[in-house]
Batch of 3 targets.
Target 1
Amino acid sequence: MAAGVLLIRRVLRKHQGRVEAELRAAKEAMGRSKPDQAVQLELDPATGVYRPRQMR
């Protein structure tokens, strides 16, 4: 029983570390982005997918 609990604890701790690393990387990427360079998106009615707006 105790061995099972320790195994689950180890797996959860490993998963938590991976999630924290992904969040840290996302926060760093958001800090580097520049809002004035954001690309506007428009819905493509044929596919239902948002794509960058075409310059006209």
Target 2
Amino acid sequence: MLSPAIVAAATLLFSPPPGGRPQGQFSDAEKATLVAYWAEPGRYTAEPAYLTPKREPWQVRLTTQASRWLWDYQKAVAPPLIPPTADAAAAPDRASWETWVAAKVAYDRSIAQASADAANGVQPTRTTTPAPHPGPAPAAMVAALGNPPPFASAVTPLRHTVTFGEGDRVQMVDNVAVRPRYAYYRFATGVMDPGTPVRAMQEAELAELFVAAGLSDTEAHVMRAVSPLEGGFDAINTYDTGYISIGFIQFITGEKGDRSLLEVLADERSAGPEAFQQDFRAYGIDASPAGVLTVIDPTTGAELSGADAVQKVIDDKRLTAVFGRAGRRSPAFRRSQLRVAKAHYWPGEDVLTVGVPDGPVTCKVSDIVRSEAGLATLYDRKVNRGTLEPLPAVVGKLMRDKGLTSPAEAAGYEREIVTAMKYRKDFLADRTLSQPK
């Protein structure tokens, strides 16, 4: 229960000015209630995460500045659409760049490890001596990409705990341990919680969700196969280029708060306003009529929208936790995730235009790729990259090389097409999925 004194003070603070209040998603009374709720003692705590067996608070992490630089480096030296699970490697004509970057990463991480060891009270040994200095950076690389920043630093990851009620809490850790050359790291104070994997859920519970969301057996099999690459329904990620990424295939807000996660919120609000109220509005999260994220600052009661709302969710772990709680507890939010995943990312109905000698051929993706393994491969690309590229080029080359003239003929070579389109995982090796004939 909220303290009467806190409610009274918050109500006075947010009482409407003479002539009425500005229009927004939340009334002044709602803002007062929200500020009072979040001000309750014990709602939020943060403490060192102690992620190692020896409970050492200081750890080595990639810097966000270096990750941005590595993003530019990746675009300069690597082929397009490189999977986020892989590091860029320079072509032979830029081998000196790659040699220097690899050496600089090793050197910076060894220096950062020495700093972390000193802060943790660890006695230095011969194994903790710095890696060799890489020497001057290649001049052409600096001219093209700018001066490289430090690639690592010593930090103290924190564990954030948000408590909604007895036995109802969400925990998240910041300063996420990404790969030393991860090009998508943007927010050091962003958090990550993988949630409960879909594969760990009860079969009956999953089946009920898939049926309620209107998914076919094929769609359900494919989504289950791809979901381990993303997270559970309650997964949270606020540290990378998606800005706020939530759910079993990581629906995102993007920088401006108007991407696929807002479609999920809109779907839940439309399908079940009462559930949406309990899951999100009751804690200060909504979407504007234009489909843009809107939140109430838990401390000031200010109503924020778009990019400001996105940044507030990243910064204030109380708001971040609301999404994890809904994913863990709300069947309505889970069903909305499934419906939007099908509408937004299912590849089967996408139209494909392929160039062949006799002129362009247009068909549906499912005219060529029909197996669950093939659809999962394309679904993986569309979820992670937002596109099926380079599928038209792959199919076009195969049809030209083999003298094919129709999609029906190309379907006979589905395995070759799927092999060429493999992205983060080889679904051709997944025997729980139907395979190309």
Target 3
Amino acid sequence: MIRTRFAPSPTGYMHIGNLRTALYEYFIAKHGGGSFILRIEDTDRERYVDGAVDIIYKTLEIAGIKHDEGPDVGGNYGPYIQSERKNDYMKYALELVEKGEAYYCFCTKERLDSLRAEGDVGVKYDRHCLSLTKEEIENNLKNNVPFVIRQKIRPGKTTFRDEVYGEVTVDNEDMEDQILIKSDGLPTYNFANVIDDHLMNITHVIRGNEYLSSTPKYNLLYEAFGWDIPTYIHVAPVMKDAHNKLSKRNGDASFQDLIEKGYLPQAIVNYITLLGWSPSENKEIFTMEELIECFDVKGISKSPAIFDPEKLKWMNGEYIKMLSPEEFFRMSEPVLEKSIKTPGVDLRSVSDMVKTRINTVYDIPELVDFIDELPEYDKSLYRHKKMKTNEENSLDFLRLIIPVLEKTPDWDNDSLYSAMVNTAKENGLKNGQILWPVRTALSGKPATPCGASEICVLLGRDETLARLKKGIEVLGGNEIG
């Protein structure tokens, strides 16, 4: 059975690349009827951020990713925590020492720093402690000399197969004797990964392609223990542009940032999944269930994917359109309440009007700001080539419609629309020659979330007539009334 794991470090917010990895791991497991495991790799205590584990857990929950097993926490599965498994790692490291596949290193920080100072930036450890005698090692341990345990890299070459990049060969000479157990007794990220993946029966390891060059180290450890090597799937990074990776440090949005900016979780999940993966069918909008059903490793690209904020906005707008009116009103109501202070405005009607015209709920304020107050605007807005309106004839059309609206008994959309189009017909005009000047005079904006008659209803009779008369003034005519 397929078993995958997501193993983030609790060092802050969940960035886009990390979430994409979690999604791919989740889809691969669920597509194959397998299990998805959550494991918190918190052995790097210097980079540990308080509260980051909760952020990871909450992010996965919001994204719709549920892990399948782990310690029981109040009747639910909690994540596996590496720091709580400290004794397991030391046991396996000592086993490697016994087998001659690892060794104690007692070098001080000062000595290691001097090596780097004397050599190139990428200088490797010189294996100084590999030549220590058994007596020297025992004496150092007896005297509690601080130590780390290093992997002993064998000579030769290591070849492995990756599902995305194919066959990869690395010269072992290029690899350093990496540290497996640090001086505090905790494992390094690389060593803990191998041990936990084996103990948890992980069959497929999905991670960023920056780990391609490190994979031979993992495989040498698997071979030293006599364990099965998992299937590897390395994925290219998500980029900000052609030269720069997405980075929280550079101000790029995390998953939490996108949620706070009004993006729907399902839209984010859909978009991120398509960053570096292509479905076999020609479509872009998928439910979580559809992604599980159609996800195929063969669709993962070797090329980096560039995060396009505009494409995400578009996709979020498509998801908003698919919401029911009730769902969208629940989401938009807080924004509408802050944006519209005029008493008596039907916020539910406004919600219905803006639903298909926005990409996030935070596009709403700019669309509806004219309701509270008519903005200053230039009379050139009355110009519309298709509607055949300009500043001169719009003045005439406003003078024509105001008396009609003043006499319209029922102030509702149907009555007002009929009054305007009938006036146009009776005077041999296009509908737009009445509707466009009215909409412009009422909103002072080049675009509105609804038509002229609907704006009349939102504003009410008195405000509508007052703004139409103001429109005549803007156009240089004398006020009516």
